[in-house]
Specification:
The protein has about 500 residues and is mostly helical. Among the domains are: about 110 residues, no CATH class; about 110 residues, no CATH class. It is about 60% helix and about 5% strand. Helix 1 packs parallel to helix 5 and helix 7 runs parallel beside helix 9. The radius of gyration is 26 Å and the shape is globular.
């Protein structure tokens, strides 16, 4: 009689959810959020002013000046976000603190969504990496939509990752995913589309993982988030197609544009690289981005061995999707554009680093943790040096614009007033004036309308160094403007007040 042996295969080890452990990931994630908050409050917030784009968004809700012209590509999500503060005070410091608190809390919340599919060390490492990037630190307290797109994308992908892993989707996952996509689309409709695309495909097309309810929630969130932008397109631009066309013109035309090298150069501390015809000022600042694709691939591979391959691959593919338009379709670079991609790619990156330093076969856990901490410390040090440089440049620009605004006020250009010309948008905001342009992306008036406005309110035109004042300015009065930080002086001209008989006399200080 022969003995029959039954060969069995050990089941794949289940992924231990971090929330099943005592304490869970929340205390660790809270520590990451607090560190992010403190760095913003200590390094970025003190002495900072509103940049050009920020003055546009904040002025829609209050702040220090009438609403600036709102161009076709912009969406009003960030104006809604700052409205509770901007409607009450023009203090930039209060606004910065408000946004820093919100962004730190949102970072913790977005990471916490992943608690059922990723272990605590991966979550903490991903959060530390993303929060430590200089664009994240610099824009965390800024009135800009990009960090909110990043945090919304991280949360949306986390909500979708849960049914992808568990095979079942409850109402909570569907509502969470739809709401997060809506927030991203409200901030930047294009980002909402590139976020929803891979997530919808993951839950509708992939065999064995179809969750039509989640897919419907994602589409509904995208439509809801884009609704204000679409309604405004019909109200102001004559339709959605017309607004999309105008938005493309302002962005230099959307098409095949390889901007990878532009983004690498911009990481040296350029908040906007347009055109990005600069040299490699500091190649070392882009080193981490050049190795990021390799680390992401390794992270996906090791996550698969741990039973988390599907969710980590989802994060990687969604991050890649959100990077595609800025790397290959837009002909210029700004580090903030890639914040959503960085947030999502931090997940497979963290899987890679945690595996290499804490789970490798011959690694000792205490030594691995120390080495991982050393790698993160080196990364944070490099990012700190760049963000310190960016903050210094930002403060210098703010000081220059503030000085010019003060010179205009002292020359009689006081609220209510109108400012046009070079850098008129931020300078007008600091002066408490409306900004109106006769040409360019923000064209919203005509020379005749400006001359008419001068009959009722002080109206000034700013001219950049080396340029001549516009001929239509007439018998204008020159306003001396401070150069600021060694820069060549702008020139300001106060338009004459035209009398009914056609004679004109420039306004005098009041």
């Amino acid at each position: 009689m022969h003995e029959t042996r039954v060969r069995t295969t050990a089941p794949e080890p289940a992924v231990t959810a971090p929330h099943d452990r005592p304490g869970g990931p929340l205390p660790w994630l809270t520590a990451v959020g607090l560190a992010f908050l403190v760095l913003q409050l200590v390094v970025v917030v003190p002495g900072s002013g509103l940049a050009w784009d920020e003055t546009v968004y904040v002025s829609q809700a209050g702040g220090n000046a009438p609403p600036a012209f709102f161009s076709a590509p912009r969406a009003r999500g960030i104006s809604y976000l700052v409205a509770p503060v901007a409607a009450l005070t023009a203090s930039t410091a209060v606004l910065r603190i408000y946004l820093a608190l919100l962004s730190a809390g949102a970072l913790v919340a977005a990471l916490y969504v992943w608690r059922k599919v990723l272990p605590t060390p991966v979550l903490v490492c991903a959060g530390a990496f993303f929060a430590g990037l200089w664009p994240t630190l610099f824009y965390g307290s800024a009135a800009m939509p990009n960090p909110w797109c990043a945090l919304g994308a991280l949360a949306a992908t986390g909500w979708v990752a849960r049914p992808v892993r568990d095979g079942a989707a409850g109402r909570r996952e569907a509502v969470g995913a739809g709401a997060a996509v809506a927030i991203v689309a409200l901030m930047r409709p294009a980002d909402g589309f590139w976020l929803a695309l891979p997530l919808v495909l993951a839950v509708v097309v992939v065999p064995g993982r179809r969750r039509p309810g989640v897919g419907a929630a994602l589409v509904a969130g995208l439509v809801a988030g884009c609704a204000p932008w679409t309604a405004e397109a019909y109200a102001r631009y004559g339709g959605l197609g017309a607004r999309l066309h105008r938005a493309g013109e302002i962005q230099g035309g959307l098409g095949w544009n390889i901007a990878v090298d532009d983004h690498l150069r911009a990481l040296a501390g350029r908040t906007l690289c347009r055109p990005c015809d600069i040299g490699w000022e500091s190649p070392g600042t882009a080193l981490w981005l050049t190795v990021l694709p390799v680390l992401v691939v390794v992270g996906v591979v090791v996550a698969r061995r741990s039973g988390r391959g599907a969710v980590v691959l989802l994060a990687a593919l969604t991050g890649l999707s959100m990077a595609v338009p800025y790397l290959f379709l837009v002909g210029y670079a700004a580090p903030r554009f890639l914040l959503p991609a960085y947030a999502l790619l931090s997940v497979p990156l963290a899987e890679c680093l945690v595996h290499l330093f804490m789970r490798a076969r011959h690694a000792r856990r205490p030594g691995g943790v120390a080495l991982l901490a050393l790698v993160l410390a080196a990364h944070l040090t490099a990012q700190f040096l760049v963000v310190s440089h960016v903050v210094r440049v930002s403060r210098a620009t703010t000081a220059r614009f503030t000085a010019m605004a003060g010179a205009l006020n002292r020359s009689g250009v006081k609220p209510p007033c109108v400012v046009s010309g070079a850098d008129a948008v931020p300078i007008a905001y600091y002066a408490g004036c409306a900004s109106r342009q006769t040409a360019g992306h923000d064209a919203s008036t005509t020379p005749a309308a400006l001359r008419e406005a001068a009959r009722h309110v002080p109206t000034a035109v700013l001219v950049a160094p080396g340029e001549a004042p516009p001929a239509w300015a007439g018998d204008r009065r020159t306003v001396p403007l401070p150069p600021g930080n060694g820069a060549a002086s702008y020139r300001g001209y106060v338009l004459p007040v035209v009398a009914p008989d056609g004679t004109g006399q420039a306004r005098r200080p009041r």
